[in-house]
Write a structure and sequence with these properties.
Elements: E1 4-7, H1 26-39, H2 66-94, H3 99-121, E2 127-128, E3 142-147, H4 154-168, E4 172-175, H5 182-195, H6 200-214, E5 220-226, H7 228-243, E6 252-257, E7 279-280, E8 283-284, E9 296-302, H8 306-310, H9 312-317, E10 329-333, H10 341-349, E11 368-371, H11 373-380, H12 382-389, E12 397-399, H13 400-403
Parallel strand pairs: 1-11, 3-4, 3-5, 5-6, 6-9, 9-10
Antiparallel strand pairs: 1-10, 2-4, 7-8, 11-12
Helix pairs in contact: 1-5, 2-3, 6-7, 11-12
Length: 419
């Protein structure tokens, strides 16, 4: 039985004459996103289900530890207070209050919300994984960066990057996408997606990744994005594409989980003269099969994840996917629910064995993928069909682990012979 659907990366639509949706009117995009939100609202329960088991122990977001329970209680307080605040807004107009009373009410709510968020977020500075790497090969020239998603405070961010560090045996830097509470985080997602607004977190990530790409000591810059972090990551990539020479992007790899983004740009490479000075012992860095600026982008999504259905699954497989721009391979875990990074993605896709190592076998990675030929043809056009018929790209059943590049980094390993 097929439990994973695979969708190849999207071809560049340089010949298209219509504007891409994410470049349209922000207010039309906002209205479209609001309608989409309510259309997939039936999957909302899939954000936190399943609640059990706890494959990563205390690193799992819903594990009954003191810090996790504290975070859940603070979020419950924010949900109640923010819901009450939003419900009172119509009454400001129906039963106008004196201006001074309204100002006091707004200031008191802002202060209360800010105090709770401060307890959740801490100082908001980037964090570094705290997993000892003694006994593991130090991968020189690699920089790993993570951006978190909705509702993640300081404690959960630390858990996320520690789980990633233990999975891939690399030090991971976490750029903190500060939470303002789940409801306000969703509103922020709408503003970021539809108005292309870069928050302070996005700017911080932009600076960090840009410096990593410019550093000649780095040969790989791996960026992992979760949930809302994929919105900010996509905007960050847009900035970087406009600011850096294409050759530097040959270092960059991007992996997302439950992405809430509405686009992912990855333009084709510019033509390079035959005698380009940019060469290595293996040949020109530009001579890549896909001829894309960023060589590796992968998206992982649970079919029943509300955020994924509002994001990556809608914009790669929705009714208008051919008119969207969402580059990168998609691995959709059919029948799976849950949105939390550790508990619902890493615990299943990079499950641990009894020794705390990533097990060589799990249901997701061993799943035989259904490469959807019809959708792939529509997604990539004639070029995809030609590649498949010429034998350069196989259509049919394959295990996930054969095409998942991220899997090849498990337990301190690296992909072989692929840059």
């Amino acid at each position: 039985m097929t439990v994973v659907d695979f969708l190849p990366t999207q071809n560049d639509a340089s010949s298209a004459t219509y504007p891409l949706p994410f470049t349209g009117s922000p207010f039309e995009l906002l209205w479209s996103d609001i309608k989409l939100f309510f259309r997939v609202l039936v999957y909302l329960w899939g954000v936190v289900v399943p609640i059990y088991p706890y494959g990563s122990g205390e690193l799992d977001e819903l594990y009954p530890s003191f810090d996790n329970v504290k975070a859940l209680i603070l979020h419950a307080i924010l949900i109640v207070s923010q819901t009450f605040f939003i419900l009172t807004i119509p009454f400001w107009f129906l039963y106008p209050l004196p201006l001074n009373v309204l100002v006091v009410y707004l200031v008191m709510f802002w202060m209360f919300n800010g105090v709770i968020c401060r307890w959740l977020n801490g100082d908001g500075k980037p964090l570094t994984s705290r997993v000892p790497m003694d006994g593991w090969e130090k991968r020189e020239g690699e920089k790993w960066v993570f951006m978190n998603g909705i509702s993640i405070g300081n404690h959960w961010l630390q858990s996320n990057i520690d789980r990633l560090a233990m999975t891939f045996r690399r030090e991971v830097t976490g750029v903190h996408n500060l939470t303002a509470g789940i409801i306000f985080d969703i509103i922020q997602c709408l503003i970021e997606r539809d108005f292309c607004y870069n928050t302070g977190d996005s700017r911080q990530a932009y600076h960090l990744v840009k410096e990593a790409l410019r550093d000649p000591a780095n040969t790989k810059v791996i960026v992992i994005l979760h949930s809302q972090g994929a919105i900010e990551g996509a905007l960050m990539i847009d900035w970087l594409l406009a600011d850096l020479p294409q050759i530097l992007f040959r270092k960059l790899e991007v992996y997302t989980f439950g992405a809430a983004a509405n686009h992912f740009n990855n333009p084709t490479l510019s033509d390079v003269p035959a005698r380009s000075p940019i060469r290595t012992r293996r040949g020109s860095l530009w001579e890549e099969p896909e001829k894309r600026v960023i060589r590796h982008i992968e998206h992982y999504a649970n079919q029943g994840d509300f955020v994924a259905r509002w994001g990556v699954l809608n914009f790669t497989k929705g009714a208008k996917y051919r008119y969207n721009r969402f580059a990168g391979q998609l691995f959709e875990y059919k029948g799976a629910t849950g949105h939390l990074l550790c508990q619902h993605y890493l615990d299943y896709m990079f499950a641990w064995d009894k020794e705390g190592m990533v097990a060589e076998s799990n249901a997701f990675m061993d799943s035989m993928m259904d490469v959807e030929r019809i959708i792939a043809d529509q997604r990539e056009g004639e070029n995809a069909l030609n590649k498949m018929e010429n034998g350069t790209e196989t259509v049919g059943m394959k295990p996930v682990k054969e095409l998942s590049r991220l899997w090849k980094y498990r337990n301190g390993m690296s992909p072989v012979g692929s840059g």
